[in-house]
Amino acid sequence: MERNLAYETAKGTVILAGIFSISLAAANLTMGVFSWGFAFVLGFAVILAPRMSLALPRSKFAISFADALIFLTFLLYGGPAAVIVAASETFANCLYLRKKGFPFGPLMIPTNVSIATVSTSLTILAWDTVHLLAFRELDPRSTQALVAYLGFLALVQFATSSFIVAVFQSLKDGSNLFSTWRKDCFSSSMTQIVGAALAGLLFKLINFGDIITGGIAMAALSIAYLSYRQTIREVNEAIDQAEEAEREKAEAERDLRREAENHAAQLAISLEKEEHANIALRKSEKDFQHAALHDSLTNLANRKQLGDILRTMIHEYKVDPAATFQVLFLDISRFKNINDSLGHTFGDKVLMVAAKRFVRMLAPTDVVARIGGDEFAIILRNVATAGKAQKVARRIYDNISQPFSLSGNNITISVNIGIAPCDAEYNTPEEVLRDADIAMHYAKERNVGVAVFTKELRFRFIERVRYENDLREAIDRNELSMNYQPLVDLQDGHLLGFEALLRWNHSEFGNIPPNKFIPIAEDSGLIIPITIWILRQTCNQLAHWQTINPSYSDLIVSVNISGKHLMHGDLIADVEHALEMSKIDPSSLKLEITESTAMENADHTINVLNRLKQLGVKLSIDDFGTGYSSLSILHKLPFDSLKIDRSFVYSVGENGENSEILQTIISLAKNLKMRVIAEGIETETQLHLLQNLGCDYGQGYLLARPQTAENIDKALYEHKSWLPVALIPGSEPTAVSDDPGLAVY
Ligand code: C2E
Ligand code: MG
Ligand code: MG
User: Fold this and answer.
1) Looking at the predicted structure, is the pLDDT value of residue 35 above 60?
2) Ion ligand 3 residues within 5 Å by Cβ
3) Is the pTM for the entire model greater than 0.85?
4) CATH class of the domain defined by 303-453
5) Which of 480, 501, 685 gets mutated to test ligand 1 (max ligand atoms within 8 A of its CB)?
């Protein structure tokens, strides 16, 4: 701030000094000055000199004619005229430069003019003071004197102007005065010297040369000047071009560098991206590997992983018999029911709960895998005997059936477990799993929960496969036939009709019990074509029986329908077809559907049963009491009658004990407006009890065994009574035949 003040003060001072100097010079102008020559010099200084200055290439200064003109003016017209020329030339030069775009700060033009004025004035003052003393001996007109004068003037002019400029510069930027002078102003001595030399030359020409010499000299000077100017312009252009080229090169290099940097940055980005992609790839590879070996729902090992592990263990066991293992095959009972009734999401949750329970109950070294929808497998490592494996399996069986609550539902699940103990005969994991599966099916069939695989089971399995194959051809081979078991009105002994029961007389193995072959027929789907055949047979048979006697026209036949047929077959069309063919009244045909089948897929069952009902056929719920009916569903199902499972009849003791369930079922049926049939009546006690409880109809060995159509035919013609008179309520007791099946009254 202070320094700026000094600078501003210096500016003001020099401007004042400039004004003073110009005024003084103007006042001291002699009349001789006002001449064409002076006007020419002044005009030259103001108009041409600024335009003619030659900037020296790569240097800070320019050769100007200003100094030459000032010195020439001094020599021709004296000091005051030189001051006027200096002031005018500087002013014109500043205006010219400003026009060209040079940025002059405030008061810089007057300052510059003043510096030129003051330094010229000081030079003249110095000259006036010293020339008489220093140059007295010299002949003023000699060249020697001229050189000395001009040399002195140039020196002083240089000293004063460069000093003032250096003072200004150091005041402005605070730099050292001497170093500023040396750096910025010293070089301007050249212009002063050149200017002085030029002035001397011109002076000589004007004063001593003739016109021709002067003209030639002027022409030579002009040519020299112009060619020098041309050269300088060319040099400058060349420099400019070189600089431009250099700039372009630098620019290109910069671009290249920038490009390289960009490339490097992009490379870094793509490397980073690649790294990310690699990480993602590695992760997805890992995930993929995990997914390939795990079950997505339970996160347990899947069939593939189980197979891999098992393959290794089979091999190890062959090498080292101490490396024992046991494989458990687990199947969740009636899981399909859960899925169908509560939805698949719920079913998934149940599977997750089951999976967690399995894992919790086992050692970390054991392997638990999910190998199918509701099928799991467990490898117990280092369990030597099947007995120990059975204990583990039993523990799992007990634990898994602990009820749990899921989304507000109380759920109980159970499993069937088959165990395959390690055996040196095994070569592949599939063999082990197949045997564990066979054992599991056995456990399920026998309702025992856990079973260990034995060769005997494999035999049974093979036998089953054989039966299945033979059953396919049983109809064509005429091996299937029907038995009919009478259904009797328990109150008056009147014959209601018959239950049609399938028989298979195998060409090699003889009679095979329905309990053995019906499940095979159901599992294989063969039950559907077989039932179509049964429907046709029985309806035709009934049509014939109904014609034997008008009193038989109301007889009915009851046909057992499998769940498979209900779910997947075209039962309605099959029934319709049988009715059409036989021409029996639809109400003469009754279809029996077991309670468990009816409950399995209640919505679908309701739908199909309603459509069957529209055909006019009768419907009966079979084996009631074993299928865990839901009362809310039961009342929606359009059953006409309810058949009590024979196990409830069987459990009635000699003195009528355990009759409560029967009583409950009968009153339930009555409430649901259904007729009640009791099956499996074998004793008179059971019959009496059922009669007393108000049971409508009955079926059982006491009344009649299932018989061939020929036997029934015969009995019908003979008007056989199916209920001994003594057993009809209200009738007189008479002797009863020993053979109830053939009893006649
Ligand atoms: P179900 O439908 O409950 O048939 C009644 C079964 O009880 C018959 O066994 C019959 O012989 C038996 N039974 C009748 N009275 C007595 C008795 O007083 N004591 C004893 N212990 N048993 C008696 P069957 O004929 O062996 O049939 C067994 C099961 O096989 C049937 O049970 C039924 O579920 C199935 N079945 C039989 N025939 C067919 C058929 O044609 N189609 C279908 N889908 N299943 C059938
Ligand atoms: Mg039945
Ligand atoms: Mg039954």
Assistant:
1) yes
2) 622-623
3) no
4) alpha beta
5) 501
